Amino acid sequence: MLLAELTWADVAALDRNTPVVFPVAALEQHGRHMPVFTDSMLMGEIARRAELELKNEVLFAPLQWLGNSHHHLDFPGTLSAEPRVYLDMLCGLLENFIAHGFKRLLILNGHGGNDVPGKQAVFEVRQKHRHRNDLLLLFATYWNLVADPAKAHPDLLQRVMGHACEWETSMVLRLNPGLVKNHANVGDVPFGNPFEPASRGWIMTDRSIPGHVGDPTHASAEKGEALFQAFTAGTVAMLRRVMQWDGASWEG
Q: Residue 115 and residue 110: Cα distance in Å, rounded?
């Protein structure tokens, strides 16, 4: 179900155990070869496919395209919400539907910079409603819902998600190849090791002058379709777990 197509009366008639999904992404630079709307395009496509598979079982809110992208602001075209403003917005989305009586809420993310505020949002809202044990508040990034996305296609070389990389470039090639510019010649920017396992504060120019991380040279639309299928399957599997939750227990 698409929230944007329902009336308030339609929403009021829904079972309050219906999972509600809030897809979130970003509008930010993706190197010299990819559109600034990449994350939102990809997240929107995965949400679209998941909704088609689940139909009347899950309610999908419209995609929130503004994200936490301050680390990309050195590149023109990037739009970013202030981090605390963004966190408060995510909390507000959850609070809105808690007020409407819904109990199983998932923020489904398509941008790495949203990871910290997204996890903080579900943490903060849960503390506010600590007297309730019937709330399931989740945050998930779509590429983390698959155990090994690199197995989606035998020719994938990249092992983890980068930025405007083989994976993302392949998926945009699948959706709209006319938006990808000369990806075979932009070169490889290695992932490196930023003092892992510590978490380092960074901006994109610390890692990459052209703005991408990884090697988009080997991207293809065929690989993109395989990745879309894998990421959609991972999303649907998570939502089925949400539907099967008993409404009170820690286990899921």
A: 9
Count of other CB atoms within 10 angstroms of residue 17:
15
Do 22 and 106 touch, CB atoms closer than 8 A?
yes
Q: What are the φ/ψ torsions at residue 76 (nearest 5 degrees)?
A: -60, 145
CA distance 207 to 164: 13
Q: Phi and psi (nearest 5°) for 213?
A: -130, 125
What phi and psi values does residue 139 have, to the nearest 5 degrees? Answer: -130, 130
* Contact criterion met (CB below 8 Å) for 186 and 212: yes
DSSP notation for 118-145: HHHHHHHHHHHTTT-SS-EEEEEEGGGG
Q: Which residue carries 């099967």 as its tokens?
A: 244
DSSP tag of 223: H
Cα(236)–Cα(50) distance, integer angstroms = 6
pLDDT of 252 > 90? The answer is: no
List, in order of start, the domains of the chain with CATH numbers: 16-243 (3.40.50.10310)
Tell me: the pLDDT tens digits for 95-122?
Answer: 999 999 999 999 999 999 999 999 999 9
What 3-state DSSP class applies to 21? Answer: strand
